[in-house]
């Protein structure tokens, strides 16, 4: 397995595959279009975020999107993991953990004092994040309302 930054063509392929990645990551709650993905990702890329790509035998196995963010309370600049995805055929082989380690190392080298991420509470990746030392910092709670 190789992990490295994406080139232009690979970035385009990731954008095309990202609707499925978001669908999986949100546990089927969000089914975005490729256009919506672009609207979300392009501002991040313009602010310095980038993808690291995991490949096996020339095939895209997964990716992680990392970059800067700001703490909403203190305005401190921090590192952020915006997206982590491993294709179905490559799951269970340690690729997510390897991408996380590479992403964290890149953010550390970038001088960020902390790395954060957001994840749906029932996403199986929570276990990986906890194993890697991530702790719950804040929680967003919801109450679905019935419309009369």
Automatic annotation (TrEMBL):
N-acetyltransferase domain segment(s): 1-148
Q: Which GO terms fall under molecular function for this chain's record?
A: acyltransferase activity, transferring groups other than amino-acyl groups
**Which is an annotated Pfam family here?**
Acetyltransf_1
Q: Which Gene3D superfamilies match?
A: 3.40.630.30
The UniProt entry, under InterPro entries, shows:
Acyl_CoA_acyltransferase (IPR016181), GNAT_dom (IPR000182), MshD_Acetyltransferase (IPR050276)
Q: What is the designated name of this protein?
A: GNAT family N-acetyltransferase
UniProtKB keywords: Transferase
Q: Is ATP-binding included in the keywords of this UniProt record?
A: no
Q: What is the species listed in this Swiss-Prot or TrEMBL entry?
A: Brevibacillus invocatus
Q: Which domain of life is it from?
A: Bacteria
